[in-house]
Amino acid sequence: MEKAGRRTFTIEPGISGIQDPITVQYKETTDGLPYYALEINGSEVQLRKDEEKWEQIWGDLNEEHVEKLGQALNEQTSNQP
Questions:
Q1: What pTM, to 2 d.p., does this model score?
Q2: How many Å apart are CA 24 and CA 9, to the nearest integer?
Q3: From the CB of residue 47, how many other CB atoms can be counted at a distance below 10 Å?
Q4: Per-residue pLDDT reduced to its tens digit, 4-56
């Protein structure tokens, strides 16, 4: 899923209660699986895309927030060169 180049970027998903912009860092597990670490209101949340659905692997967000953040990540990563 990663595009060449930028491993850290920002997104502005416009979610109530979450400060914009959100700093996002692309990371990989030790076995090479991609995920994203997001700094939200001073806390780290980790998301990954499993099949076609985004899931939270670390943090305390509700399903709606995970879905909206996933949409923002899809938009950002599909626009990278």
A1: 0.83
A2: 5
A3: 22
A4: 446 899 998 888 888 778 999 999 989 988 999 999 988 999 999 988 899 99
Contact 64, 77 (CB under 8 A): no
> Are the CB atoms for 61 and 47 separated by under 8 Å?
no
Name the H helices within 6-80. 63-78
Q: CB–CB of 24/38 below 8 Å?
A: yes
Closest CA to 20 of 55, 69, 53, 60: 69
- Contact between residue 74 and residue 12 where contact means Cβ atoms under 8 Å apart: no
Sheet containing strand 43-50, edge to edge, reads 8-11, 22-28, 34-40, 43-50, 53-58
- Tens digits of residue pLDDT in 1-15: 444 446 899 998 888
